[in-house]
Specification:
The chain is an alpha/beta fold. It has 10 helices and 14 strands. A hairpin with a 5-residue loop joins strand 2 and strand 3. The two termini are about 35 Å apart.
Length: about 375
């Protein structure tokens, strides 16, 4: 039988935190109203016990699967979501939302500030991973979901997954953090800071006040180029590019000689068409602030019945395996049920988007076990 996928899907919008009911952020500031863009796939059953929340990485959005009207490419995790896939929409109700601070339909620095009727820019408050999760909880309440069968995501999506357990442990039956960490290392913070500095050094950034003007495209493109290097591995770059040249001979100029140079420039130039530079600043800062190390993740977790499956990839040097093992060790410290899987991929950090077969096998069996236990009342 041919895999038919999700088909055409529609992005929806949920607005909350109206005047007088603003969301209180980790910084102590209040923000509202807030809109979250989200998509759903499959159906919520009568017991409302089959919902799974998918959480995206830095540059992701609510469009995780299927095609929006007019799209040429499907959502960013389409190969994992759909009938018969890892997140089987014949069985589960899948929700994915664009994070608070984003730029694809959710409230962020490019949104209109109701106090000024102009884009927020740097007037947008600093947000954290916990703020993103608290906003998502409002969406779950709106959708009538009393408990999530699972919550999952890779990279920053994995951070949100861990934060969900920290903030709402009673709300989860299971969690699947992928290629992520309890906190950013100095090296990871350094990569983010170089990206931020590239954006802020662009003359067109104008201290964040570039809306309706010239966008700081070069700064954002450079940030994306640098970031994309960290998503791959030495092996994957060698296989994909080696030292292949665009022409037979060196140009003996600063033009693009190597295929890898052209690839990075393409990635940077395409990224600026779909992402807001200020959102890049805010979201990377939220990732750098995230810290559930030192037993903070499991503080007060005694007796918690949430089941974990932690997945890491051997060639991921941006989020190396020792960081996945730190998550596992902390969960075992409080006797939280956890399965740990290391996948021998050569794709680097991008493996969570590319290693479909291995992840599908692992996730399918894990979710089936969790769902069966929930139905049996165990």
């Amino acid at each position: 039988m041919k895999d038919k996928g999700i088909g055409i899907v529609e992005t929806k919008y949920f607005t909350f935190a109206e005047p007088g009911q603003e969301l209180v952020l980790a910084s102590g500031q209040r923000l509202g109203p807030i809109t979250l863009a989200y998509e759903t796939y499959g159906r919520l059953n009568k017991k409302k016990d089959n919902a799974i929340l998918i959480l995206h990485a830095l540059s992701g959005d609510a469009h995780a699967a299927g095609f929006n009207q007019g799209d040429k490419k499907p959502g960013w995790w389409d190969n994992m979501i759909g009938p018969g896939r890892a997140f089987n929409t014949d069985k589960y109700f899948i929700v994915c939302s664009n994070v608070l601070g984003g730029c694809k339909g959710s409230t962020g620095p490019s949104s209109i500030n109701p106090k000024t009727d102009k884009p927020y820019g740097l007037d947008f408050p600093i947000i954290t991973i916990s703020d993103m999760v608290n906003a998502q909880k409002k969406l779950m309440d709106y959708l009538g979901i009393k408990k999530l069968l699972s919550v999952t995501g890779g990279s920053m999506g994995g951070m949100q997954t861990l934060q969900w357990f920290k903030s709402y442990p009673w709300f989860l039956s299971s969690a699947i953090p992928i290629a992520t960490a309890l906190k950013h290392s100095p090296q990871q913070i350094a990569f983010d800071e170089v990206g931020r500095q590239a954006i802020m050094a662009d003359p067109d950034w104008q201290k964040g006040d570039y809306y309706n003007k010239v966008k700081p495209e070069r700064g954002l493109a450079v940030a994306r180029m640098m970031g994309h290097i960290t998503y791959m591995s030495d092996v994957s770059m060698e296989k994909k590019f080696s030292r292949r040249m665009k022409n037979k001979n060196y140009s003996y100029t600063f033009k693009t000689d190597f295929e890898v140079e052209g690839y990075l420039q393409y990635k940077g130039d395409s990224f600026v068409k779909r992402f807001d530079p200020n959102s890049y600043l805010y979201i990377t800062k939220a990732m750098d602030y995230f810290d559930l190390s030192g037993k903070k993740l499991v503080a007060g977790a005694d007796g918690n019945e949430t089941r974990f499956m932690v997945i890491g990839f051997k060639s991921d040097w941006l989020y190396p395996l020792y960081q996945s093992r730190e998550i596992v060790n902390q969960l075992k410290y409080r006797r939280v049920g956890v399965t740990y899987c290391e996948i021998p991929s050569t794709y680097g950090h991008d493996a969570f988007l590319l290693e479909v077969d291995e992840q599908t096998h692992l996730i399918k069996h894990f979710l089936s076990s969790v769902y069966r236990n929930e139905k049996d009342g165990k």
